[in-house]
Amino acid sequence: MPKNRVCYFHDAETIGSFYYGPGHPMKPHRLQMTHNLVLAYGLYKKMQCFRPHLATDEELVQFHAEDYVDFIRRVTPDNSTDFAKQLQKFTVGEDCPVFDGLYDYCRVYTGGSLDGAMKLNHGLADVAINWAGGLHHAKRSEASGFCYINDIVLAILELLKYHARVLYLDIDIHHGDGVEEAFYSTERVMTVSFHKYGDYFFPGTGDVKDVGVKNGKYYSVNVPLKTGITDDSYQKIFVPVMQKVMEMYRPGALVLQCGADSLAGDRLGCFNLSERGHSEAVRHMLGYNLPTLVLGGGGYTIRNVARCWTAETAVVLGEQIADDLPYNDYNEYYAPDFSLNVTPNASMENSNTRQYLDSIKQQVHENLRMLQGAPGVAMEQLPPNLELPPEPEADPDARGGGGSSSAPQHPAEHYDDD
Ligand SMILES: [Zn+2]
Hints:
The protein has a 9-stranded mixed β-sheet with strand order 6-5-4-7-8-3-1-2-9, sandwiched between helices. It has helices at 29-40, 57-60, 66-74, 84-89, 102-121, 151-159, 177-182, 231-249, 275-286, 302-317, 354-369, and strands spanning 6-9, 48-51, 127-130, 166-170, 189-196, 220-225, 253-257, 292-295, 413-416. It has a single domain (6-400), classed as Histone deacetylase domain (Arginase, Chain A, 3-Layer(aba) Sandwich), CATH 3.40.800. By secondary structure, it is an alpha/beta fold. It is globular.
């Protein structure tokens, strides 16, 4: 089987130095650590590495409100007192602080996801990776959960120009609420989220009963899980659910949000997955051999985030890498074991009983059975404020588009494909 052609987006100049502020759990530095491990393992030699373009306002307003994008562009730590009203309206300030370079940060992480979607659309890659992306909580006019601009929604809108149906899968420990909400009433995107649910865990949405509305009814899939889930338990529910999803939906492209806060020992999370269990989900999805956009997301024990996303870069490339970490710029973070492995906590209780997982699996299967027959093609109603691109007419899954497309292209700077 030919190996995947992989495009990888990373802005080594800037992305690692954005700083949410002292004590804030979201640390873009984890992206520089991940990239450094990718370099140290030599994985960069096996893929095309690009510096992403900066997303433009015109691109951002394809989903977000203009006044919200204006605000994100203009607000700084120095002038934020002039924006008291907007800070409140757009819920910026606490979880989602105003920090230096906020607008450029949003443009870089969004640019990488858009560039990835365009590479896939034009048949220039089989898989595109943007670990800086995956900010799944952002809403049309609202920052949420450390997310400001929803790069995922924007990348999916790009993929919809070439694909009749796009599948979004979210394995972050938090419910993928922003993406689900954006596509809640359309059948052109199926969103699937595996997440911790209950005990007031953020963001509080994602009940198994939430399945979508109108044309999108049964096209939102939620798999609520409990604290302490292990690799084994996760695999037991993930595989049958995703097999059924793929069988019923038959998407033309995949978007994977690989939030690493579902790993054991996460500062904000409460699951008990190793990096192997986490990347097994990615491996499974790559097995469907569809154009795939691989994104980051949450992840707050940063040494484990770097471990996990490096392991998953290797999985995408079909490369075996040693468990012993190669010497790298952030070696001291990986003491005392200097290993790629994220070790589960052996004494943590798994609250997901077999009966619980079986019952969730059964409910999800019952919801998916409602999709019996061919997935709908008619687009009667668009979600409010979200102009979906017209459905591609002939051969929706064809790659390339024969050069007749007017889809905007952005020259991504090619800095290292050694
Ligand atoms: Zn998360």
